[in-house]
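Folding Problem: From Residues to Backbone Shape
Fields: amino acid sequence; protein backbone structure tokens
RECORD BEGINS BELOW THIS LINE
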Amino acid sequence: LSRGNSSRIFAPHTVAMNASDIRQSFLDFFQGKEHTVVPSSSLLPSSPNLLFTNAGMNQFVPYFLGEQSPPYSPARATDTQKCIRAGGKHNDLDEVGFDTYHHTFFEMLGNWSFGDYFKREAISWAWELVAEKWRFPASRLYVTVYRPGEGDPASFDQESHDVWATLFERVGLDPKIHVVGGTRKDNFWMMGDTGPCGPCSEIHFDLTPEGDTGGRLVNLGSPLCIEIWNLVFIQFNANLDGSFSPLPARHVDTGMGFERVAGIIECTDQFRDFGTRVSNYDSDLFRPIFLKLAELSQQQYLGTVPTRRSNLTSQEKVDVAFRVIGDHVRTLSFAIADGIIPGNTDRNYVVRRILRRAILHGRYLGLGTDGFLSKLVNSVVNTLSPAFPELKAQENTIVEVLDNEEALFNRTLDRGLRILEDELVNHPGKVFSPDAAFRLYDTYGFPVDLTEVLVRDQGLTLDLDAVEDRMKVQRERSRAAQEKDVVAPISEDVPTQFVGFDRDEAEAKLVRLVTQGGELLALVDTSPFYAEMGGQISDTGELLYGDSQRVEVTGVAKRGSSFYLKLGGTFDGEIPADVWLRIDQAHRRKIEANHSATHLLHWALHEVVGRNVSQKGSLVAADRLRFDFNSAPVTADQVREIEQSVNQRIINNDPVSWLELPYNEVKTRP
């Protein structure tokens, strides 16, 4: 497999560091700086406003908010975090294949400080690793610092600017050239609509042959000057009303693009040759996948990159397909290993769309309908399971799910292609219907860019703006229906004692009233109300005070160890110090029944489907339950057997009891 138009052969050759070496070097470096090496968290996020884990900081949000204390001494950590950016605020799906450095799945190398060190140490260590240990040429490095525009939060990041300026001056480089100001768009990092955030400082690397752009390509989306590391200085919490509040402590959150660094080091032969195009896909992270894909398709990958989305040459189509499939099979393997199975809603639908996009590009390579994605899984597992052993443990499940999904979509795809052919035959004009293009995307999973290529081959044009208008309407409809939770910091640690296991009502102290998102919340020191958590909705009921006054309790939110009652009204007169809390018993009993039914369903899934079924989420409400789990599709016969098993247990009227145990002990019980 050859790379681009160069004579260099895309085959194993000696470099100073391969990808595994780079990953380990990063972790070892920060372990030497007293950081605890922690494992990657699951791609299934715990944060309520994320589709996928999309950054290394996600698992540390409780530490940033002050809900929990970090279990590290000193309060520092380092890791490589598996991430997916294919939906929500951070979405790189449509870029994959058409450039050399975007991915839906990637590893983010990071180091973290939880109220310990801050900007000076983070920047100095980043320079030490990149410029001194790994020997990135300093003359090709450019950094950005936050320079707010009108109405933007915070002020100019003078401290970061001064630290960077000193480092560049030490090696004889002009900081006026190498330190660049960036706006909120590029240099103020936010996890989502709400949550921890702050100014950031990015490191960019000049990949031009001469390396003398003087920073002119920074943040222009050029493949010749790409960001490799983002140092985020978490100081604020973004609130639902658009305001920014200072956090109780200042933190450091950095994220390095592992695939980008691996591609740069290998493609430049350890910075000795900048004469050929640098690509993430030309590193040993993708080589085994591409070699297997070339064997299956009998096509050659030449590494060409189109400068447009239309009128691609035959070779450009092939090379885009290689990159799309190479990226997507990694995403699919990791997602399925973490229990995110292709489906019809939310993150599961995004995974299904990624899978279908890969299959469509497989058609361009002539891979037909026999199934090919599962044949690439072993290449992914062999390359990445030393760092992520869950891939090896779940390899059979990954293969099974991909085979089933590919067979299902190939039947759907054939129907979609017939619809496309009918539209082409029956269309009298030269413009393909945007309604048909949107229907192909929405119903059959056809990416619009692929539809455009297909109709262009027939001499028709497609109004992409008109299709985008229809997609915007759909997104607005989806956004309007989306449930959002607010990520908010704890300003004061006032623990609440939960007494609801034994009591339906209790006396309590009203500690504080707060208003958030238009809701009145009451913090209490004692509560018979169960707070919403673990997929189970909260209790409802009433708060009593005075002689006979009452306020409805519509729900309960848990923040750290504190319970906040959501009040459906206000207090008459003076705010009481002592209150009486009483749950809605009928509502609680219905929730309890569905909670027990959830356990029965989990048991039956183990008995009927297999012991490897594990819970990946749930909803326990008064009127229904939902149970998310990782598994191959459950057959109709298995569904009947599960129903019969659960119903028989209910008919037996077995006694129900509860036992409170430490979480780690629960995980080890049979």
Notes: Confidence is low (pLDDT under 50) at residues 1-15, 480-491. The CA atoms of residues 545 and 576 lie 7 Å apart.
